[in-house]
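Hello,

I think I submitted the zinc ion job twice by accident. Can you confirm which output corresponds to this input? Input:
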Amino acid sequence: MKDCYSLEDIKNKISDNDSMDQDTKTILNSLLIHINDMSNEITDLQKRLSETLEYAELLEQDMDNIKEEMFGEEIFDTFDEEEEFTYVEVKCNNCGENIYVENDLMKEHLFCPNCENKLF
Ligand SMILES: [Zn+2]
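Support: Only one job matched these inputs. Its output is below.
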């Protein structure tokens, strides 16, 4: 006696068994066919899953390369720095509107958002 019979062994045992009626044999053989189908399907799924995982890993490597090419390695550092903005109040000498300008932008030429007069 084996501990575990293969599907083929079970099929032969059923067919050789004289104490079973034909209906029981048909039921058991049908079960064997379904089990065999499921087993093939699982093998196929495992193969496809493993291919998909390999593909995903390649995609991830590609993405990393693209990210590095586009942004360089410093992309992850830029969000760490917390910059403090200081604003300067500027009065438009055309329409009198008070405009708050970020300090760093004071070096550039800005226009009044209200009347489009050149501020400085
Ligand atoms: Zn203005």
